[in-house]
């Protein structure tokens, strides 16, 4: 997990995801949920290169970002000079003051690979939200994702950013040697110049996808009440978004 978004990978991530993800839409989606629940102070976990931060900042909202990767934070800070970003781990962090809402965006929950990672994260979310505060997060739906990657062995993504053509070939393997629904993900990133592929980076990581039932149980055990479950298609994967309230 630690090296996935480090160094050169952070810049490549930023270039490619600008074209995969419609961050205006993403912002509108999360902001509607925040407004519906009267939340004004917001922490975004997995704030990455600060694309949502930019929208929160433009709308003068009380926003902070938190991310594990210093390289991602560096890009986020460059993009958003007025925003506050904390380098930290969602499994163990402490804010100066609890907030109204904590978001975990961009399927960053996929990096919580053990049950202990998930329980520690929900515990940290509980402690860092105010009474009746809410959490909003997305996760990849195992029931749809595993059949999808079993049938689609090689997944290619293409993106053009600042006149450079990028390609990413990804390959997923279901890793049955580990507990839960774990996957090994290998990706090759390259640029295409005059029709010629030039490899720029290889990436390998182990990630986890979840069933809705698993998440419901984890939330129950960590004293959160689900307010809303949204079935949401994102650029490549079917996800669920959960809005849950902290119970007293
Ligand atoms: C797929 S990216 C999503 C970035 C951003 N939300 C977006 O949609 O562009 C996942 C992010 O989660 C961060 N991350 C992974 N594990 C983390 C952890 N334990 N604590 C905090 N951030 C973490 C990574 O550094 C990365 O920036």
From TrEMBL:
Gene Ontology molecular-function annotations: methyltransferase activity
Q: Which GO terms describe its biological process?
A: methylation
Kindly state which keywords UniProt assigns to this record, in alphabetical order: Methyltransferase, Transferase
Task: Specify the superkingdom.
Answer: Bacteria
> Residue ranges of the Methyltransferase domain?
42-133
Q: Which Pfam families does this entry report, sorted A to Z?
A: Methyltransf_25 (PF13649)
Q: Which Gene3D superfamilies match?
A: S-adenosyl-L-methionine-dependent methyltransferases (2.20.25.110), Vaccinia Virus protein VP39 (3.40.50.150)
Instruction: Identify this protein by name.
Output: Class I SAM-dependent methyltransferase
Q: Which organism is it from?
A: Flavobacterium cupreum
């Amino acid at each position: 997990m630690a090296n996935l978004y480090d160094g050169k990978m952070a810049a490549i991530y930023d270039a490619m995801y600008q074209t995969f993800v419609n961050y205006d839409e993403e912002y509108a989606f999360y902001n509607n949920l925040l407004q519906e629940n009267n939340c004004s102070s917001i922490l975004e976990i997995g704030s990455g290169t600060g694309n949502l931060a930019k929208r929160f900042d433009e709308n003068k909202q009380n926003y902070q970002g938190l991310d594990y990767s210093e390289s991602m934070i560096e890009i986020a800070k460059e993009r958003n000079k007025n925003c506050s970003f904390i380098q930290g781990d969602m499994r163990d962090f402490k804010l100066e003051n609890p907030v109204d809402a904590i978001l975990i965006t961009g399927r960053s929950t996929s990096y919580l690979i053990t049950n202990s990672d998930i329980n520690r994260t929900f515990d940290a979310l509980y402690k860092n939200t105010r009474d009746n505060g809410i959490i909003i997060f997305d996760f990849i739906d195992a029931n749809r994702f595993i059949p999808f990657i079993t049938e689609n062995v090689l997944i290619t993504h293409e993106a053009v950013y600042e006149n450079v053509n990028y390609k990413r070939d990804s390959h997923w393997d279901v890793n049955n040697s580990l507990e839960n629904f774990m996957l090994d993900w290998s990706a090759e990133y390259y640029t295409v110049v005059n029709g010629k592929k030039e490899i720029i980076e290889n990436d390998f990581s182990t990630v986890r996808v979840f069933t809705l039932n698993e998440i419901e149980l984890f939330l129950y055990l960590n004293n959160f009440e689900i307010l809303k479950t949204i079935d949401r298609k994102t650029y490549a994967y079917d996800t669920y978004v959960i809005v849950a309230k902290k119970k007293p």
